């Protein structure tokens, strides 16, 4: 039976824990939609704590099928959110959405999702965190901060802010945060833990020969890092 992510909204502390190893899917790196589902299954089996289904180029019909496949294989073990496609959350059975600065306004997304779904927003600069803080209470559940390091999955990304920039913005945010951008490089997990942010991973899992083992290694490194 599916746990009540939507029926019982996560507290801030629960959400922080849930975002510790936050997988963002990349269809190309996974080898296609079926590869995304297999990758998600392996990652969650080996300790991934949150999944965001992302494919900005896929038509809605195909994306909905992909999202349903991910939701089915996750089987309620961890939250699943959709990147941008707020209008597909209900039909897919996902637990919420993650939107960027160029997507629909957060207030509109919250209205479409209802009060209990998970909603995250990408922020890259101090003024964007301040704008997120100024939204009506209950609009956002978390913010994605970054890129922390240089990365290849979003060619239009802002310049990296580094661990110090992450720490500053995470402390400023009034909702939990997850670090985005270049997390998979050597030695890049330990500096994240002290900031209080979770950690979003793309290529280190999606492009791995064995996504399950790659996830297990990341989980171990996260658990061994000093807060």
TrEMBL record:
GO terms for biological process: thiamine biosynthetic process; thiamine diphosphate biosynthetic process. GO terms for molecular function: magnesium ion binding; thiamine-phosphate diphosphorylase activity. The keyword Metal-binding applies. Mg(2+) binds at residues 84, 103. This is Thiamine-phosphate synthase. Residues 21-205 form the Thiamine phosphate synthase/TenI domain. InterPro entries: Aldolase_TIM (IPR013785), ThiamineP_synth_sf (IPR036206), ThiamineP_synth_TenI (IPR022998), TMP_synthase (IPR034291). NCBIfam families: thiE. It catalyses: 4-methyl-5-(2-phosphooxyethyl)-thiazole + 4-amino-2-methyl-5-(diphosphooxymethyl)pyrimidine + H(+) = thiamine phosphate + diphosphate; 2-(2-carboxy-4-methylthiazol-5-yl)ethyl phosphate + 4-amino-2-methyl-5-(diphosphooxymethyl)pyrimidine + 2 H(+) = thiamine phosphate + CO2 + diphosphate; 2-[(2R,5Z)-2-carboxy-4-methylthiazol-5(2H)-ylidene]ethyl phosphate + 4-amino-2-methyl-5-(diphosphooxymethyl)pyrimidine + 2 H(+) = thiamine phosphate + CO2 + diphosphate. SUPFAM superfamilies: Thiamin phosphate synthase (SSF51391). The gene is thiE. Binds 1 Mg(2+) ion per subunit. Belongs to the thiamine-phosphate synthase family. Keywords: Magnesium, Metal-binding, Thiamine biosynthesis, Transferase. It comes from Luteococcus japonicus.
